């Protein structure tokens, strides 16, 4: 466990020279709105969880502590948001063969995710200091990494079945909603 924290800490230190500019206007005005749009597309593209999927037994402990913290520095918020959105983007980069989602909405969802991660990367460029709590960020990052790895394993274990994808979709919706609540608490419009 200590070794995992060490590697997460090293990853954070890799970003330190590039961490966000406090002048990231996109973050102030667009992150929450774009996140709401992508959540809407994700909800609409598949509808409600099919009844046949209610019997699927999947043990995923939601990483609530990743979204709750006293450290609400701009740098930490950007890194957590980037972390979440990048994990989500990578999940949906998988093969979606068995699902019958609205492909147009799926395309819009993935496009918004791609643009969000790109804009957050721009926010991280050029800053030479990290004002957030590195230990807190490392812990939160590790929770998210483990959680999203479990979702990837669910997809693999269930052979990317319709029910596995639907359960993952529901979990991602919950994550995006928690991200919005975190942005609310931090005062982002």
Automatic annotation (TrEMBL):
Q: Does the keyword Signal apply?
A: yes
| Name by which UniProt lists this protein | Interferon alpha-1-like
Where in the cell does this protein reside? Secreted
- InterPro entries given in the database record: 4_helix_cytokine-like_core (IPR009079), Interferon_alpha/beta/delta (IPR000471)
Signal peptide span: 1-21
A Gene Ontology term for the protein's cellular component: extracellular space
Q: Which UniProt keywords apply?
A: Antiviral defense, Cytokine, Disulfide bond, Secreted, Signal
Chief location = secreted
The family assignment reads: Belongs to the alpha/beta interferon family.
Starting at the broadest rank, the lineage of the source organism is: Eukaryota, Metazoa, Chordata, Craniata, Vertebrata
